[in-house]
User: Which sequence fits this backbone?
């Protein structure tokens, strides 16, 4: 039994595919399959049911995968010990980040971080919250950037910043003449949402209460659409259709450009989300995590560091 074999097993469990796991491990699929077969022969059990699509572990395989994750996590401590004593900052840091944060946050700090720490290999995956949690549990990534709080006491949550929501309203919308928006002004009948699975959708539904609808506010279109990204929802508003809610950093991208939509703040206290870094309580690669959190906090507008917002449950 080798660490490489355990790494291959965990990778297949994470990606639910032998071919994708091989790609992520930088080996050929036959090599990865052969090594997992050797491990199964050594243990005398089948770890994966290969007839399933996607690939799924057997009952005993699930137990093996969980223990393999622990072993790989502990083996990482040796590298961490060495890194903590060195003057140079180096290592590999794998981070998952949700899609409603990544396109707006990453451009703020990536360039300066890479220049400051050239010895760090930064690997970033755009993933939804549930997938980030799953990959953290299986040690496939080192940390996640998500909206918190999350009801999972297996991880440490460290606040990065608060991010208020703003309304983006078409010029012909019923709320276009308002200086500020109240929560009870919102109706699901004219509000564009991301599809299910995005925590940002759940946060907006929480702001709207129990999902109220009002026939007189119904969209003046036969289009029913749920998007995968905020840019598409902004585009619909620009076409004079309905409204959506946007996080502060997404709104920053709108400033200074020609737009058919109108930005509206909420009355105080502004609904907002808390954006945090989450990582294992084992504190692996802690030095690298501290440095990247510091870079992120330094890169966001000072306004987002103030503890003055009404934080919406992360869903």
Assistant:
């Amino acid at each position: 039994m080798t660490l490489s074999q355990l790494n291959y097993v965990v990778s297949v469990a994470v990606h639910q595919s032998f071919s994708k796991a091989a790609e992520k491990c930088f080996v050929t699929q036959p090599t990865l399959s052969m090594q997992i077969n050797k491990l199964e022969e050594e243990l005398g059990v089948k770890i994966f049911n290969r007839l399933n699509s996607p690939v799924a572990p057997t009952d005993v395989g699930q137990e093996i995968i969980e223990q393999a994750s622990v072993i790989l996590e502990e083996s990482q401590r040796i590298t961490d010990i060495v890194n903590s004593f060195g003057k140079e900052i180096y290592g590999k840091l794998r981070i998952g980040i949700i899609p409603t944060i990544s396109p707006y946050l990453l451009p703020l700090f990536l360039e300066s971080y890479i220049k400051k720490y050239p010895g760090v290999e930064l690997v970033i995956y755009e993933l939804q919250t549930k997938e980030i949690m799953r990959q953290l549990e299986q040690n496939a990534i080192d940390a996640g950037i998500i909206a918190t709080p999350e009801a999972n006491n297996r991880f440490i949550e460290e606040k990065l910043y608060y991010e208020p929501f703003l309304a983006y309203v078409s010029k012909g919308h019923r709320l276009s003449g308002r200086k500020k928006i109240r929560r009870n002004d919102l109706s699901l009948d004219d509000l564009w949402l991301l599809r299910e699975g995005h925590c940002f959708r759940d946060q907006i539904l929480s702001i709207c209460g129990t999902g109220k609808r009002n026939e007189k506010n119904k969209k003046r279109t036969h289009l029913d659409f749920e998007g995968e990204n905020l840019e598409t929802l902004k585009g619909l508003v620009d076409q004079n259709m309905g409204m959506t809610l946007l996080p502060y950093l997404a709104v920053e991208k709108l400033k200074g450009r020609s737009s058919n939509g109108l930005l509206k703040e909420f009355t105080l206290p502004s609904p907002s989300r808390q954006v945090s870094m989450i990582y294992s309580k084992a504190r692996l690669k802690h030095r690298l995590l501290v440095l990247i959190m510091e870079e992120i906090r330094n890169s966001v507008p000072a306004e987002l560091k103030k503890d003055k917002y009404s934080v919406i449950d992360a869903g």
Observations:
- Residues 1-82 form a domain with the Arc Repressor Mutant, subunit A fold (CATH 1.10.10.10).
- Residues 214-218 have pLDDT under 50 and may be disordered.
- The longest strand covers residues 155-170.
